[in-house]
Write a structure and sequence with these properties.
The complex is a heterodimer of chains A (225) and B (350).
Chain A lengths: L1 H18 E12 L2 E2 L5 E3 L6 E18 L2 E5 L4 E5 L5 E7 L6 E6 L30 E9 L8 E7 L9 E6 L4 E7 H4 L2 H6 L2 E2 L4 H13 L1 E3 L1
Chain B lengths: L1 H20 L24 H12 L11 H4 L19 H4 L24 H4 L1 H4 L9 H9 L2 H11 L6 H13 L7 H6 L7 H13 L14 E2 L15 H4 L8 E2 L21 H11 L18 H12 L4 H4 L8 H4 L12
Antiparallel strand pairs in B: 1-2
Helix pairs in contact in B: 2-8, 2-9, 11-14
The chains are: A alpha+beta (225), B mainly alpha (350).
């Protein structure tokens, strides 16, 4: 009898798996027209300088799918850490019968999550995305080097976060998405502008600079299907 | 016979299961308010508290293995720091602030003199971090602990498997610190009607309620909010307290109100340790208040205390010392794990 129940349960889960469709969000870093490779140098246009991006990590949270202005699906996993070195894709299990035309998500963690203490999984502070001297998640982390930066070893570091008003950094993003897959370009030549690298090569705490830089990051994102 | 062996081994298994998960009940006296720490998200157990205690005393948490939490928070000083030499190159921040005493943390929502930390669990990250590189080093600590036989065992005892994660480490450290409850002072005994104040202490208690209790609120002797108590700014430090974090003008010079329990053990006083003696503190409140835009209303006028009244107030403050807490063996350096002295930790064990 127990076996029968077990078999029924197993086949049911299997059936539900089959019934689900895979929806996928992926992120591709770009420098001008090229796909950016971490650690590789690129020339900066209109200057003799070059740039290298070493680390790109950010939180994508509360993903939902919409059809004609109505939410039809929201991801049960609330927080995804994207680390371009190891993982640039989020898979969603969306029930088969659901169709959608729009995807919505946030860049960064919500303010409540920032106050809950030690968390597990992608939110574990061991991923280096939680500040030490001031509580809160780093929502976007971009690090690298450029001869433009007048810093030690020419390094730039953007640790963008902050959950308290008026310097909240969480950004809402909405893109059209009709197919199973959306690939989002991150054009670093637009995000890491000459002036920024020169004037503020290091943003390491919440504040207006963090807000300005994370907004630029958001605005640069380009969806492709 | 076989059956008996079976029953016996089943019993042993059950008991050892219990031993592993043995819950620790968080005890506090009835005259204390409800704690604010959410124990539901971090259920206390003996094994986790013990893990947290070992971590608290282990210099493995620092980059170069030279200092532990206890280097700055000594059990003999109610987990404050009486030595001013902070040369050990942790974050610059540490150099200009006085290490506060650690106890009754379960009743506190914001930590650090400026409230920079919003949860006890995340507190340990601050000292663990390398200068300037914020929040990065927990990763290294987790890796170090993963290759340690001692910690494999301790994590297994605490969490049933030996996996080391940031979350587990931070929560275990919270657990140990949460058990640091100071509630056995003479004041507590008087409240529980197990002792009584002398006449002088009683007069001091009245003065205290009149002048100090609005901020240093009994029974914890702080309401754990932030205030400007009129200290002149030290121009070599230019520390503006809570404003550093919130960037709001109205938070300028607001510092976390410290508890007045165990003051005999926790000198020097104030966020920058500017006063070595309680006399100097009372002198500040009676003669030294510096007016400024954010000065607390209660302190707009200097507090008037005659020399006799000062002595009375001091007598009361001394009833807040809790030697049972300061000498509690459960809070001390875990010799049974590390061996004789802190410098004696055999490296091959870790």
């Amino acid at each position: 009898m127990r076996y029968v129940v077990a078999i029924i349960i197993i086949s049911l889960t299997f059936y539900l798996e089959l019934m689900a469709q895979q929806a996928q969000i992926s992120f591709t870093p770009k420098w001008s027209n090229e796909t950016l490779i971490l650690g590789k140098y690129y020339p900066i246009s209109n200057s003799n300088d070059s740039i290298r991006v070493d680390v790109v990590k950010f939180y994508i949270t509360n993903i939902s799918l919409w059809k004609q202005g109505n939410q039809v699906y929201s991801s049960p996993v609330e927080h995804h850490l994207i680390n371009l070195e190891t993982n640039n894709t989020i898979d969603l299990k969306v029930p088969q019968q659901i169709s959608f035309d729009t995807i919505q998500f946030f860049i960064g963690t919500d303010s409540i999550t920032n106050t809950l203490g030690a968390m597990s999984g992608d939110l574990d502070a061991m991923h280096g995305m939680y500040w030490a001297w001031q509580s809160g998640y780093i929502n976007v982390k971009i690090e690298g080097a450029s001869s433009i930066c007048k810093t030690r070893k020419n390094l730039f570091q953007y640790h963008l976060g902050g959950y308290l008003s008026p310097n909240q950094t969480r950004q809402q993003v909405t893109f059209a998405m009709a197919n199973q897959h959306i690939n989002i370009f991150i054009p670093f030549d637009e995000i890491l502008q000459l002036q920024t690298l020169q004037n503020t090569p290091e943003v390491m705490s919440p504040g207006t600079q963090a807000v300005i830089n994370i907004q630029r990051f958001k605005q640069a994102l380009k969806p492709t299907e | 016979m076989k059956k008996q062996v079976l029953v016996l081994s089943a019993l042993v298994t059950i008991i050892s299961l219990f031993a592993f998960t043995a819950k620790h009940v968080f005890l506090y006296p009835t005259h204390f308010p409800k704690p604010v720490y959410h124990f539901n998200n971090n259920t206390l157990s003996k094994a986790k508290i013990e893990l947290g205690r070992v971590l608290f005393y282990d210099p493995i948490l620092s980059k170069d293995g030279s200092i532990s939490c206890a280097s700055c928070h000594s059990s003999y000083n109610a987990f404050a720091h009486t030595d001013h030499d902070l040369s050990h190159g942790i974050n610059d921040q540490i150099g200009f602030r006085n290490a506060p005493a650690l106890f009754n943390l379960a009743w506190q929502q914001q930590f650090m003199w400026d409230g920079a930390i919003n949860h006890l669990d995340m507190q340990a990250l601050a000292p663990i971090a390398h200068p300037k590189e914020m929040g990065e080093n927990l990763t290294d600590v987790v890796t170090k602990l993963q290759s340690s036989t001692l910690y494999k065992t301790l994590f297994k005892n605490a969490y049933h498997d030996s996996l080391v994660t940031g979350e587990r480490l931070l929560k275990a450290m919270s657990q140990f610190q949460l058990t640091l409850v100071s509630s056995e002072s003479k004041y507590d005994k008087v409240i529980k009607k197990q002792a009584s104040f002398t006449e002088q202490e009683q007069r001091g208690y009245t003065l205290f309620k009149q002048h100090c209790n609005s901020c240093h609120t009994e029974p914890l002797f702080s309401n754990y909010t932030f205030a400007n108590n009129g200290l002149p700014v030290d121009s070599t430090l230019n520390d503006f307290g809570k404003m550093n974090i919130t960037r709001k003008k109205e938070d300028s010079l607001l510092f976390k109100i410290p508890t007045l329990r165990n003051l005999s053990y926790t000198f020097p006083y104030m966020h920058d340790g500017r006063f070595k003696k309680l006399n100097e503190v009372l002198h500040h409140y009676t003669q030294g208040i510096k007016p400024s835009a954010t000065l607390a209303v209660q302190l707009k006028n200097n507090i008037n205390l005659s020399p006799y009244q000062k002595t009375d107030l001091m007598a009361f403050i001394l009833t807040l010392n809790d030697s049972a807490f300061v000498f509690n063996p459960n809070h001390k350096y875990p010799h049974q794990v590390f061996g004789a002295t802190p410098n004696n930790i055999p490296t091959n064990k870790r």
